[in-house]
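Input:
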Amino acid sequence: MSKMTSLERIKRLLSVLPWIESQNGPYIDEVVARFDYPKQELIEDLENVVFFVGVYPFTPDCLIEVSVSDERVWVRYADWFRQPMKLDSREVALLSAAGKAVAEFNEILHEDSQDELTPLDRALAKLSTVQEDSENFLEIKLATPTKWLSEIQRAVKHSTVLEIEYLSTSRNEVTVRKIEPEKIFASSGKWYLHAYCQKASENRTFRLDRIKKIKILDEVSKTKTDNNQLQDDFSDLEHFPIVLIELPASDKHLVDSFPGVEIETISKEKIRVQCHVASEGWLKQVLISLGGKAEVVKIPREFEENIRSMTAKEILKRYTS
Amino acid sequence: MRKIERLLNLISALLATEKPLSRHQIRERIPGAYTESDESFRRSFERDKDELRALGIPISLERIPGTDPPLDGYRILKSDYEANHPFLEEDEIAALHLASNLIQFSEEDTDSPFYKMGGVLQEKKSAISEIPTESSHQTIIEALAEHSTILFAYKNEKREVDPYRLVFSQGNWYLIAYDRGREDIRHFRVDRIEGKIEITSKKFELSDDLFEILQEPAWRFGEEEKIVKFKVQNSHATWALEILGDKNEIEELSDGSIIFTELVRDWGKFMIFVFSFLDAAEVLEPPEARAAIIDWLEALV
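Output:
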């Protein structure tokens, strides 16, 4: 960890001191671990800073007493530091929002589980008492819940092979394929599934809301999950080809939420957008949605050079025929 | 005296005092902290005070009782400063910590609340979702907490709104609020709010049917009003039904395709939705909406 600034140390100490005081001589290593406080700095701050902190008139009875011995630490007489600082409304709101999003996620995954309150439910209930309504200020819609989520999660866990009917936008048709699910993740409000597709004989990313039907097969995945490859949920995006588009700067909001997007300001009026293309269908939707003001700089080799005009023509056919 | 020592002593003095302390009393009560001339003392004290407030330490400015002429002083009220959250068990803190790791807010010190709760002995988990946050959210959260009406500019117009909820959805933050000028609920893209958000002294009551309002797709909120009929072909019909719900008027054709009727208040968002079907959907009515789609597409051919 990099060195903390004086202000960071102060803020941290305002939590550390009440905690140490409430314990009976905790081990320094535990303080270090709980508060991510580098050990050398913690000992230095306790022995050479806090030791000199007190209130007027700074006679020994008005100073905080700190003693460190045998790897343990005691803090006494810090009456005015008995309590840590209040959780502020922003902290409560963000914690509740994250907690609720995860609780909802868990609920989808374990719909058959007990009625008992989980530790997370209990924590959220307690947080909701800190400030009226605070748990409702913020909401994180992780992704639209999808009906297959729990089945697929189970298949991931048990390496079960699935047969899915998948709406492939690239060909605009429903295809049936056997897949070996590896990992579920959420991005920009959608659920995705990494899986080995037996039909394509390679790894593919599927959108859960495009799965029309699912059949759980009595078959176990043969391919082993390459854990290194899946460590970071979003890193695999880098394996996808890149499209380059130039847009009016005022349209930046249209691309902000693309997974793994890189936006470069070229001039006051123009931005250059670089993003990874996970599927042809997605690329088509993006190119059409961005409209004529967007300038396509580079289309990945995997796709037709004139994919935008071809797609526009295909859609126009519906309107003109 | 080192800065960290000076500031900790300043916090101690302000927390321990019963009565507000004037600047000069503070200087006397922390010997060795501010040894410079009066003018530079004033400046360093102001800076210290600002820095502590930025850390979230609630330093209040109050009239010192019994002073004549009246004099203002500073203190930290225990009721503003001290934690008042219920005691959380270790397993509850650990569950919250895991949740806050899984949903990662960027630009946000997500560790700080856990330090206040006594720290966590737990490895960090990698996020399943990353949520961007900005400083303007702070003002909105404050207004949400106090049920205060706020003012801001949006689409070149001054808006006076009652903030109901801040929602992160599909990669963007939205403020769902009652627009007093338009006398209706509106969704505002937070990143498109122009300039500063101003908190007014007006207060409001929360509406009861909030939950239902929050579930609707984004194009149902906006400034326009257009009744749009569009057809989705058989292969994509289930998908469309799932998004739109079946509470609206729908018409099923013999080939399995469905004609939906939607009240569209944000045409731009709706058009993106229609294009997500590529050539499996077609806008039928009104004629100008159909023409807009055709124009849009022809520009791309």
